[in-house]
Amino acid sequence: MNALAYIGQSTISFCEACGRYVIFLVRSVFNGVRPPYYWRQIIRQLIDVGFYSIPVIGLTAIFTGAVLALQSYTGFSRFSAESALPMLVVLCITRELGPVISGLMFAGRVGATMAAEIGTMKVTEQIDAMYTLSTCCYRYIYWPRILAGLIALPLLVFIFDVIGVLGGLIISVCQLDFDAHQYIKMTRQFLQASDVTTGLLKAAFFGVSTALTGCFKGANSSGGSAGVGRATMSAVVISSITILFLNYILTTIIFCK
Amino acid sequence: MLSVKNLHVTLNGKQILNGLDLDVTDGESLVVLGCSGSGKSVLLKTILGLVKKQQGTITIDGVDVDKVKRKEAEELRHCIGMLFQGGALFDSLTVWENIAFGLIHGKGMDPGAAQQIAFEKMQQVDLERRAAFLYPASLSGGMLKRVGLARALASQPKMIFFDEPTTGLDPITSNIVNDLIVRSVKCSDLGAITITHDLDSLRQIADRVAFLFEGKIIWTGSVQGMDSTENPYIRQFIDAKTSGPLTNRNGH
């Protein structure tokens, strides 16, 4: 009976949290799309969230592409299918690894920053102060971040795709004796626009879910610095799990029709 | 004028305010006293709409905030300025941007005009012009309070709330902040509610004192009345006795 009660209680709590999460998103969007628009905040967030994430995304991409090329070569060489390597690298990166790895890096860097920053604002009464100064925090704080997540992550994923393929090319040419011209030709031959666009579409979902989770967790943090720490940790964990879950759902919808 | 009747607030299952009644007239400076955790800050936040009440009425200038549209209620509440306990300044903005925040983002004022008002308010609270471009992280406790006060005054509120304005300040800076509060309130003929534990501060700024205990105002009167009262709750608080009705019933 206790176990049943625990399961019931957990289910109710989960549903309640999901409901509050959705209400938070609806409020952010509803307030965000109405004037006044805080362009300065939106641009600032785009720079913080997007531009400053380029180095970490770039580094992750080049190593991912390189390792993917090395491992694929090892596997393909067992049945003399080395020539399929450029195809595998480009499809894996654009369809799956680009959006998922970028999303996870984004969750670690941006989700954590948002939760910590907003959580600190919450516990130091800055959000209350904003309300007393007739400013809607959904419009000023949350919406610019969610919009930045929506715009920045697809752009970062595109950068990841380019650098990841480049990483595969470098290793293939320098270490695996591929011809650069042939590698690029095969990559272009196999790659379709839909491979890239579906990856970017996934990234848009991941960007919104990460920013939303960071904002939601920060806005609901309490209990001083320890509370902010907990909010930050749970923002990263929930964002990462959400990305993997959403990736499964979106892959099922897009590729398994 | 602000009037609060039969206010009930429960937070996390705990009854914080339990049928509280309070009135503040224009130009009056009311100081609310009470033990730590008695719900003084919750009272201010409930009036401002930051905490939900379960029961009771809040009337601002004769208008019940529950009987008008949400936007009108928010506008009424935005006629109240607040100086938060820790200042609550925005870390990412400079001093002048903090002061002008409500003017630019809340009232849609041109940033140039808002900056001029910010400079005037800085002068009003004795802050030097060169502090305008500093960030809150580089300010002292006294300066944080001054900036917070300037920000609360910038929107020209009809009433102003001070949440423990002298906490954490040395006696000299406390006196300076108290002087600024008195000057700001009296010069602008504002109604004010101040929460403080600092009795010296209270004597400087209060026209009237209210004592909050177990979610209700149990005593109200002038500063002289407070000093001469035989009310055992007030006496224990003023004399800082460790035993008495406050500690016996409050479980201290």
What features would you highlight for this structure?
heterodimer; A: 257 residues; mainly alpha; elongated; B: 252 residues; alpha/beta; Rossmann fold; 6-stranded mixed sheet; 4-stranded antiparallel sheet; 40% helix; globular
Structure commentary:
The complex is a heterodimer of chains A (about 260) and B (about 250). Chain A is mainly α and about 260 residues long. Chain A has one domain. In chain A, about 85% of the residues lie in helices and about 0% in strands. Chain A has helices spanning about 1-30, 40-50, 55-75, 85-125, 125-130, 135-175, 180-190, 195-220, 225-255. In chain A, α3 (about 55-75) packs parallel to α6 and α6 (about 135-175) crosses α8 (about 195-220). Chain A is elongated, with a radius of gyration of 21 Å. By secondary structure, chain B is an alpha/beta fold. Chain B has one domain (about 25-50, about 80-250): 3-Layer(aba) Sandwich (Rossmann fold). Chain B has helices at about 40-50, 70-75, 95-105, 110-125, 140-155, 170-190, 200-205, 225-230, 230-240, 245-250; strands at about 1-10, 15-25, 30-35, 55-60, 65, 80-85, 160-165, 190-195, 210-215, 215-220. In chain B, β1 (about 1-10) and β2 form a beta hairpin. The two termini of chain B are about 35 Å apart. The relative contact order of chain B is 0.17. Classes of the chains: A mainly alpha (about 260), B alpha/beta (about 250). Chains A and B meet through α5 of A and β6 and α3 of B.
How are the strands of the biggest sheet of chain B laid out side by side?
Answer: 6-7-8-3-9-10
| Low-pLDDT runs of chain B | none
The quaternary organization reads as heterodimer
Count of helix runs of chain A: 9
Largest protein interface, residues of each chain: A-B, 16 and 25 residues
Number of separate strands of chain B: 10
Secondary-structure content class of chain A: mainly alpha
Number of helices of chain B: 10
Number of domains of chain A: 1
Overall tally of domains of chain B: 1
Percent strand of chain A equals under 5%
For the record, the CATH architecture of chain B stands as 3-Layer(aba) Sandwich
In round numbers, the mean pLDDT of chain A is 93
Helicity level of chain A, as a percent range?
Answer: over 70%
β-sheet strand percentage of chain B: 15-25%
| Distance N to C terminus of chain A | 43 Å
